[in-house]
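Submission sheet (multi-component)
Chains listed below:
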Amino acid sequence: MGWLGPAEIEALRLSLRVSFWATLVTLPFGIFVAYALARWRFPGRQVLNGLVHLPLILPPVVTGYLLLLTFGIQGPLGGPLAELGIVFAFRWTGAALAAGIMAFPLMVRAIRLSIEAVDPKLEQAGATLGASRLMVFGTVTLPMILPGIIAGSILAFAKAMGEFGATITFVSNIPGQTQTLPSAVYAFLQVPAGEAAATRLVIISIVIAMSALLLSEYVGRRVAKRVAGS
Amino acid sequence: MGWLGPAEIEALRLSLRVSFWATLVTLPFGIFVAYALARWRFPGRQVLNGLVHLPLILPPVVTGYLLLLTFGIQGPLGGPLAELGIVFAFRWTGAALAAGIMAFPLMVRAIRLSIEAVDPKLEQAGATLGASRLMVFGTVTLPMILPGIIAGSILAFAKAMGEFGATITFVSNIPGQTQTLPSAVYAFLQVPAGEAAATRLVIISIVIAMSALLLSEYVGRRVAKRVAGS
Amino acid sequence: EGVLVFAAASLKTALDEIAAGYEDTTRHEVTISYAASSVLARQIQAGAPADLIISANEDWMDVLQGEDLIEVASRVDLLGNGLVLIGAQDTEPTEIAVGLDLITRLNGGYLAMALVDAVPAGIYGKAALQNLGLWNDVEGQIAQTDNVRAALALVATGAAPLGIVYRSDAIAEDRVGVIGTIPEKFHPAIIYPAALTISSGPEALSFLTYLQGDEAQAEFLRQGFSLPEG
Amino acid sequence: MSLSIRLQHQLSDLALDLDFDAPSGVTVLFGRSGSGKTTVVNAVAGLLRPAAGRVAVDDWVLFDTGQGIWLPPHRRRLGYIFQEGRLFPHLTVRQNLNYGRWFAPRGARRESPDRVIEMLGIGHLLDRRPAMLSGGEKQRVAIGRALLASPRLILADEPLAALDDARKAEILPYFERLRDEVSVPILYVTHSAAEVARLATSVVALQAGRVVRHGPASEVLADPSVAPAGVRAVGAVLQVRVAAHHDDGLSELEAGGERLFLPRIPHRIGDELRIRIPAQEVILSSRRPEGLSALNVLSGQVDTIRAGEGPGAIVSVRTPAGMVLARVTRRSVAALGLRQGSPCYAVIKTVALAPQDVGGRVVAP
Amino acid sequence: MSLSIRLQHQLSDLALDLDFDAPSGVTVLFGRSGSGKTTVVNAVAGLLRPAAGRVAVDDWVLFDTGQGIWLPPHRRRLGYIFQEGRLFPHLTVRQNLNYGRWFAPRGARRESPDRVIEMLGIGHLLDRRPAMLSGGEKQRVAIGRALLASPRLILADEPLAALDDARKAEILPYFERLRDEVSVPILYVTHSAAEVARLATSVVALQAGRVVRHGPASEVLADPSVAPAGVRAVGAVLQVRVAAHHDDGLSELEAGGERLFLPRIPHRIGDELRIRIPAQEVILSSRRPEGLSALNVLSGQVDTIRAGEGPGAIVSVRTPAGMVLARVTRRSVAALGLRQGSPCYAVIKTVALAPQDVGGRVVAP
Ligand SMILES: Nc1ncnc2c1ncn2[C@@H]1O[C@H](COP(=O)(O)OP(=O)(O)OP(=O)(O)O)[C@@H](O)[C@H]1O
Ligand SMILES: Nc1ncnc2c1ncn2[C@@H]1O[C@H](COP(=O)(O)OP(=O)(O)OP(=O)(O)O)[C@@H](O)[C@H]1O
Ligand code: MOO
Ligand SMILES: [Mg+2]
Ligand SMILES: [Mg+2]
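Outcome: structure written.
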């Protein structure tokens, strides 16, 4: 990667780190929320569903702004969390939070659809064999929705790699801390003659995201084969 | 809506129109591509898959910029199309194109997952009863993936309602022509004291997208019930 | 019929006001599309039907001029602006001069600015800091945003203690206080050039002329802009 | 119409390699679980593409790897009754039943839906969806769906296994009618000897993917070593004519001048039938029995005595009505002094002839 | 251990309303397709929550709407063999088999996997996934999975319907052993009279969601109006003792001083058994028959003559070995001059006693 400056390599590494952690940390929540939405009936279900989708609907800048208000140092959540030592403001963790939240609806959707495709009769069969709800989930539902989880995770990862508006609004663009690949691309695009550099970064993004996608196809197909058993 | 100015009402109507058409026109392509990715093996399959996902991975500004280069009046596609009377540049149709392309990966993902959940044995049963591939698709696959199609469409609609970066880059922010709700929000956010107006517009977006979401839940559930037959 | 104006987003409040006045007196319609200067320039390169462009960035105007996309004769430096250092609402004003205790005032926090290599406000701000001899000290403590308003928001929400923004932006934000204006000698002149595009009609010239009239200029001044010398 | 099947294919640990021509009528595939029956049916249906082979109905070639012919399943005009039902969950029972009809060519023979629905006893289920049916109800709908598709070839994979005997007895005659009147070739998988005896024109016994025996039903059923369900399914098939129906609920049949009585059957006087007489329902007697409740006594001579496994032996007795098989103990053979050519009497209980052992009409084998 | 079931529930057009106590052992549910058998089993399993009712095994209450008790399915310690298999598609056969064992409490009685695998003949399938199994193979794995879960209650919904007779004959003894040795209560749905006769401690006949008959297997089977598969399933159940095994492959049984011969059975001399003698396999004779191949002749007197539907009649004959039922034509009744109290001989073919009609051990009813 001789043709990448150190700042660009820094941005690339940061983007990978941010996207990786954004995906990994959101995943359990994503599975939980998807399961709750798919299989439980509870008051406030539609509110939860709406909330989850908000980042998709809102212009990213607005989401970023809301994050800033909520998780900023003086925000209602940001303050208390800071006392616990969890700081998002101007940290890569904040970029991961923004990316995770923006990717969350995609992840939940994918997982939820795959949960809804699991035949409850198989879960019932698990229960008759002595598995508690949680064990049924772990031994029947979870393995069967693995393709959906993989799909959802990669989708989320790809989205996180491309996230820009909410991230820069929330944690701004601090080289080495919060300057992700898209921020760098954006910066290059703002100035005349920045295109060459921007193109270079875009190509890198594409290569990474495509690799992730290909990997997910491959893994997903293998898992699906295992799950379908054919 | 007495508290909305005429420009804002205009933006709202435009956003609805843009999102509606973006969803409707992409839907057949979405179903086709989802089906191809789910059920066919062909050379270039992974390339197609990658292409479909590009808008998700790229910062929206980049997508918008690529659209501008491709579908601009002087672009390689925009020119010929313009001769046929199909102009996207700086028209609401362009906004719809941008929204559609940004929403496409979400739509395809949702539909594809639901296609993959259809048991091929049922499609085989249809074939033995004399239905051609196309008829099997129409009478077995399509009705069974309706929940996925609805989910995917609403997701795409919501995404289209929130799309901003690609749209403003591709077709600019022309009131009455290409100024969608998010563009209007953006404009308000750029100026001092614009927050009140921006908030108003954001709330409207949320209400609309949530209604669509609720509707989709309701319809999807009814259809799923019919499809599952329980 | 009508004039389509492409204008830098930061002009929105003032320009909306002025355009309304123009429409009232002339009964001619003015439509304004607000976006980042880079976006506007690219769109004109792609054949946007704009009649008049008001950029916040001379470089982009030069690019357009180099490609013969604007009427060179019509190009004027329409407005100027100033940079201010802002802080929390109750911050003591002080004079901005070489030797400013910026680091102390930051107190480990971040200085919010627009992208220092890409967005005009950031570029000017960086030049000012360099000329003030502060750049090397604060370089690692700058939180860069994709536009000035986002930098303003960082300060307004308390995420960043200080920021450098346009005077026109700071003026209407109640939650921030202006610590001091950065003397113009420390940064290149902030110019908003305007020009007719080569496809413009006669109406556009009339509006451009109106913008240079007393009524319009008074409004600009009221919003914190300045008039370029000469 | 004859069905000719040649297939070679390798499954995980089953090598399918078979080649047989079946005459018009019902070809029954039997063999133990896992012997490849469903695989063969799938290959005929076009759901599995075998490595090599040829399937044809008369000169209508469904596929032939040699000639590179491959009709897709939807062009094969099938009525496939799947082992696991495969009803469309999103359609009502009525829509499921009609599904094949939508695609049947205009000129095709049409089954009357009302008749099929009545026969299957699913009239009250028409507006339900499959999820709300019991196991047996599902299978009946699956049968109806296949029959109503106006098929030119019926594939039935254990179609009656999920049904109770009474329902089986109602549905069997329908398959017979398809075989005899409509002459649709039927490839039928079953474990039941009674179904084999009633329906089968020819029987193909599979073992580990190969044909171990192939012949007319009467022959295969008479062979204890391969009879579908083992020695208990061995029996003779007699061709008879309905002679009279009596007031006390018995029907009188005539075969080679001999009279046989059995519980009233629905056929008309003069109809030709075939009946299966299970070997184990036949008692042999060295003198003409008297004072017995069994009404059917055929006199004849011992033709062969085959000692089976275990204590039993199959004795074939040549009677004017045809060859009758009896399964008796070797001890009895000795006690009665039976030898080839011994005169003896075959005693058949009237009621031992189960309704499913009486076939609709004689088909030329 | 007794199973007590009371249920009220409304399905689309079936009103389930039943109440019965079944003694320890196997309780067979039978009834026509759609009569509610699977629904009852699901309610016992906790997969369906009935509007009202109570299910208990002895004093272990699984649910009771009155007391507000509701054990979730996974606490009911079930071995449920589903009508449609329901194997886990993502697990191998081995993992499917082991599934229930993972969750069985530590102290639970453990079935030996090797033994179950061998009995079911699925040793060569252990590393496959269900999609690569044939229909019968799937069902065998499903049976194994349920048995290996160390259940305290076995629910079997037509577990053997998909299997061939030879395989059935191999698996049936296993259920007997569960019933007799391990005394796990078993609720068993079947259409097969032979299975009823061999396994059932008591039989519950359902019709449209209601119990129409309930009693010990021998009683219900003797009643032509409700016998599971109609009149052909009627038969007597005799309690016998193994007296000797002979060299010519026959076993000799003793019942009330009378001798019966049947093909060699695996039991030891002295074992107590029960055997089902299907009514239609019995011939009556007014004098002691001679020169017949049938080795079993019991003398007795006519007890009752019940004219069934059609031309037949069920004649009960009191013999020293117990009550024997014969299904004969009314014409024969007249010809033999049978009346209550008439002396007569019941002739039973040796080989007519099918292996599945011979039960493992006598259970006190
Ligand atoms: N989910 C359901 N909702 C409504 N009705 C149902 C449902 N499942 C079954 N039924 C109906 O309830 C009745 C009893 O069904 P059940 O499955 O208990 O029958 P079954 O006795 O097990 O029949 P089979 O021998 O055919 O399996 C049937 O008429 C069936 O159509
Ligand atoms: N998709 C598959 N891939 C590999 N092996 C398979 C597949 N399907 C079935 N088999 C194996 O092929 C053999 C034949 O299966 P098939 O389904 O044809 O048996 P069958 O004769 O129909 O049995 P049954 O009477 O149990 O339905 C079995 O051993 C089975 O395990
Ligand atoms: O037009 Mo801007 O808003 O400062 O670049
Ligand atoms: Mg099979
Ligand atoms: Mg059932």
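Remark: Chain A has a mean pLDDT of 87.
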